[in-house]
Amino acid sequence: MSLINSDGYIDRATSNLHSFSLSGGYYDSKQFIRAVILSGKEKTYQAWYGISQDSLKSNRTYNPAGEYYDASGNLHYYEDQTDNYQQDYYQLFYSRTLNKNLTANIALHYTKGNGYYEEFKPMESFADYGLTNVSIGDTSISESDIIRQKWLSNDFYGLTWSFDYKKELIDIKFGGAANKYVGKHYREIISAGIYPASTFPYTYYEDEATKTDVNFFLKATYQVSEKLSVTGDLQQRLVDYNFTKNSTDASAKATLNFFNPKAGLTYQSTSKNKFYFFVGLGHKEPVRDDYLVSTPSTRPDPESMVDYELGYNYNAKKIAITLNAYYMDYQNQLILTGQINDVGEYIRENVKNSYRAGLETEIQYQFTKDLLLNANITVSENKIKTYNEYTYDADTYDQIINSYKNTTIAFSPSVISAVELNYTLLKNIMVAVSTKYVGKQYLDNTTNENSVLDSYFIGNLSGSYKVPVKGIKSLELKFMLNNIFDKMYSANGYTYNDYSSGTRNDYNYFYPQAGINWLGGITLKF
Hints:
The chain is mainly β. It has helices at 53-58, 288-292, and strands spanning 2-6, 15-27, 31-45, 51-52, 67-69, 75-77, 82-97, 102-125, 134-136, 139-141, 143-167, 170-192, 202-223, 228-245, 252-268, 273-284, 303-315, 319-340, 346-366, 371-392, 399-408, 415-425, 429-438, 441-442, 452-453, 456-467, 474-482, 490-500, 503-512, 517-525. It has a 21-stranded antiparallel β-sheet that branches. The protein has a three-stranded antiparallel β-sheet with strand order 4-29-28. Strands 5-6 form a two-stranded antiparallel sheet. Strand 11 and strand 12 (170-192) form a beta hairpin. It starts with a strand and ends with a strand. The model has no long low-confidence stretch (mean pLDDT 92).
């Protein structure tokens, strides 16, 4: 069981989360069956709008959510401007050894989610919600303050299965999965000024999306020699997507068929040195929001990517080093535009040709049995070969198209690194010091220096103490001191732009992160 509470760094961004998990199983020499139940529920005050660049300097914790003024011009904040959601998981696993070489596996799952977010909307037009005007005498009232809730009720269920065959030099896995997701969205007004309470809840919007996902795969690893092994992986994936809105509106339907082959070589030259090469083709379909924010003529296409990787691993008694070079060649990559919709979700679009290339390095060094160092760094280049930006003239509202060559993909830093030093004292006390660096990121895909997330470097300190207590398997006290250098930074943001009188105007918004902050916890095991 877990319980997490916070008063939040952003104004009113409180959170209250709790969850539990329960599992049990039966095992014998040839088979096992295991059941798992998990459930979690959260209530958080909305803080997803971001703040302007000016507010970032003058009032970095400002939160516009729930803000409104009364008739006298006094500022208020709606108390229940909150997000509320619960998700329950039910899982059943079964595995049986059929003979010394063959094992069969199957898993069933069902996930139920349900929740809403509530918001106060001042002086909204009744017509926008399908409500008629209210007449009092000779006066027709067409708008008032309203309180609305946007609901999501979703079901996700299915099964996965596989047969694992191992014999001497070969390892074969054959299996598949069949899953279905049903997401129902609806919006209700629960209060609207002078309308009588008996009118509500009033449903003014409904949509439903279903996604059926079926796949089959065959994966094999063959030990060609003592030092060389080859791996092949073939997957066929079928996706059927349906979206309907308000029953009478045009629906969206997509049936997608993906073939995803992969292959790799591994060469173990010595007990300490290993080289590998991998190449694979992958596909990814648009998600519900990609369809929702588009029209039939602008529906996004699925993206495809060929991934090439070449790596080296050195593993000795005290030190382990991994080097991995990659090149990801995309067609129709679905990337963030830098803009968000009305609930803070990012909008994506296809770009025809783009790539991500980089070098990843990981090092682990054991100074002593109690002192361990972990470090990693990724240096990358993330580019769009040709990008067309669609904006508008704020004076005439005419569309403006700007074309760019070899621009940097939004939210793609060229350098990311982390270092962590762990020290164990007296077997039951652990202390860790860690740092993280994230390089500069652009908020859109035009490499616009006026819309940038600055690079940041932060440090954290954490520790734990296992207290010996009779009758309890484990009592552990945990403590984290985050951002110990009190760095004022933003980890995310979004941007809009337009042109007025021939001048480009950029409107940047940011999600500021807390300065020095702490988290304490207790873990009990019985």
